[in-house]
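Ticket reopened. Same input as before:
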Amino acid sequence: LLTTRLGGVFRQLRGRGKLSERDVDEALRQVRLALLEADVNYKVVKEFVAKVRERAVGQEVLSSVTPAQKVVKIVQDELTDLMGRGRAGLSFSPRPPSVFMVVGLHGAGKTTAAAKLAYYLKGRGHHPFLIAADLRRPAAQDQLATLGRQHGFTVWAGPPGFARPDPDSAVAASATLEVVRSGLVEARRLAHDVVIVDTSGRLHVDQDLMEELSRVKGAAGPTEVLLVVDAMTGQDAVNVADAFASRVGIDGVVLTKLDGDARGGAALSVRAVTGKPVKFAGMGEKVEDFEPFSPDRMATRILG
Amino acid sequence: LTRNRPIDASLYEELADTLILGDTGVAVTTSVLDELQTRAGLAGATDAGALRELLVEILSERLGPAEELRLPPAPAAGDGPPGHAQGDAPRTAVVMVVGVNGTGKTTTVARLAHRLLGEGRKPLIVQADTFRAAATEQALVWAQRLGLDLVHHRPGSDPAAVAFDGVRAAVARGRDVVLVDTAGRLHTKTGLVEELRKVRRVLAREVEGAPHETLLVIDGTAGLNSLEQARVFDEALDLTGIVITKMDGTARGGVVIAIREALGVPVKFVGVGERLDDLVPFDAEAYAREMVG
Ligand SMILES: Nc1nc2c(ncn2[C@@H]2O[C@H](COP(=O)(O)OP(=O)(O)OP(=O)(O)O)[C@@H](O)[C@H]2O)c(=O)[nH]1
Ligand SMILES: Nc1nc2c(ncn2[C@@H]2O[C@H](COP(=O)(O)OP(=O)(O)OP(=O)(O)O)[C@@H](O)[C@H]2O)c(=O)[nH]1
Ligand SMILES: [Mg+2]
Ligand SMILES: [Mg+2]
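Engineering reply: fixed in the latest deploy. New output:
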């Protein structure tokens, strides 16, 4: 617990009389350790601790009888500021359908998030239509179709008679665009007000696939692009978030597998690097395990 | 120019940055750099080049000697069906693949099957993920690409029953290695970890010494939580190896050092892509060089 650690540090320091800036630096070392152990990116930690230090070396802390509590409060404040106060909701298009596209690394939880988002929005009176635009991963379309059947959503895997090309073939990319375009035509024809597009996992350093994603975005015309990030992602989170944000453009983040015990420092890193809010939290394997993200609960979790 | 740079505090800071950014963790980074400082002094290292070499050496040592899959010998052709046996007698080899959600288990099982085929073995894939949507469809695509058949049950069935059927089928069909793919599960879900223990018990009853390999598949992009995953899965199942996937990205997976040091579990394979041949044996020195840069 950060409070306990800082309490211990300050008790040792008080023994020497009035607190100094150097004493506060010792305490901040503990803050740095706590954040690194939570997988917050090293560079983000350095910047964050520098910000905290500016406030922590003021009289507010140095002359306090409870310096540990003061420092923890500053850290929590700064953390919640960085994570974003209050809940960031989805924005909807003034001209339906609103299109939401999920993107991200392999296995982050995109396909599941697409189904979860559909379930969540259906529960709020929307009529979601899913487009299974991952033509690469074995049985990805089957996976979304199965989830659609289990929970009563329409899942589009391509126009009638559409033959899935070999994922490594040159036509795979154009076939993906065809699935998206034909899916949008169908969604409009059936007057769905929400369309959710699932895309294949890809590495942020795969130039071809990142280029393809920009083209898929062009075809989908999304109201929001959601970067799906696994809560256990480590230091690499900044590289991934930066690449997706700058190459493709994102509007928000879905943080998945928060039902585990990963501290989730990646959430802080992604927010710091992209400025985009985490909008939803994946809290389990079932389609109902999805909720609006709570930044202050996350801040507490990261601090440990 | 960088090789000849003199050794100073800022150089050590840079190395610390590199290790931390590689998900090595603060504890291991501190320990490694302390050792580096001591050995650099003893070796009389005078420049950055020498220091980096020494660091590569230390990391390779900590990752331990290379370890391959340890499987019982395959029965010779025409020996009749393998099964219960003693000591080093030929019998069906059993490999169990486990890990948290989305790390690359199913793809790894396909890649292992591909590798074993190349070694002249006759693998049987046992698709024991009875939970995930379209798990069997996914496995069937891989089985088709490999030219292999596959054992599976309907969704919602007991994975231990699938494992049981899988081993029986292997014996009946003259297969010499069974690869058991299991559903992803967070290590924090005790009931689901217990389910794996039951699968393991069933395998152990069916073949002497099974599972001969229990591999934890971890995601190369994950941070220090992989250590906690390894701790729980090792405690429950006695792991024989780690497979670290998605190492074709920019993450370095440094947490494997902590896993080896804390639990003694070696990395056996590295996933470097999504194709059948994108699984390579772990090479500690090559890994250390990649990390140090
Ligand atoms: N426990 C838990 N598991 C999750 C959560 N979200 C997704 N998963 C699981 O994570 C695994 C991967 O999910 P997918 O939806 O297939 O991930 P993906 O990003 O679509 O993967 P690719 O398409 O291969 O890139 C599955 O086993 C999901 O059930 C979550 O919030 N909690
Ligand atoms: N780039 C890359 N992708 C990989 C690698 N290994 C697996 N993947 C991808 O990661 C995603 C998840 O792989 P799966 O094999 O379905 O993972 P899993 O552990 O079986 O997932 P669950 O059964 O849902 O827990 C797929 O998109 C794979 O193609 C790898 O080494 N490199
Ligand atoms: Mg998917
Ligand atoms: Mg799987």
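The longest strand of chain B covers residues 213-219. The first helix of chain B runs from residue 9 to 21. Please confirm and we'll close it.
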